[in-house]
Specification:
With about 100 residues, this protein is mainly α. The protein has 4 helices and no strands. The model has no long low-confidence stretch (mean pLDDT about 75).
């Protein structure tokens, strides 16, 4: 959460600086988002290339490096932990008194 707050703060600061300099954002919002997606995908090219050169398939490299989570964040329900299973054990205790004749 701290990262998101910092990102928002830096974005606001840049917006204020743009306003003080009387300039507009250098890219329309959709173009900027597509550029950010390109950056995220580009970050995965080298690690995936290394995995694939080592003989790993594209799908296995993608899963091993957790690219989906890196590109899109933790998707709702996708990475949810499996519900815990409860194991019930019973112990039978018998009276083990020794009797001597």
């Amino acid at each position: 959460m701290k990262t998101y707050v910092m990102a928002l703060g830096v974005g606001l600061l840049v917006g204020v600086i743009y306003s003080l300099l009387n300039v507009r954002s250098p890219a329309p919002p959709v173009v900027a988002l597509v550029g950010l997606l390109g950056i995220l995908v580009g970050e995965q090219v080298i690690p995936m290339g290394k995995q694939m050169l080592a003989g790993t398939s594209l799908g296995a490299a993608w899963q091993h490096l957790r690219c989906t989570q890196h590109l899109f964040g933790a998707l709702p329900g996708r990475h949810a932990e499996a519900p815990e299973t409860t194991v019930i054990t019973t112990t039978v205790v018998t009276d083990a008194r020794e009797t001597r004749p």
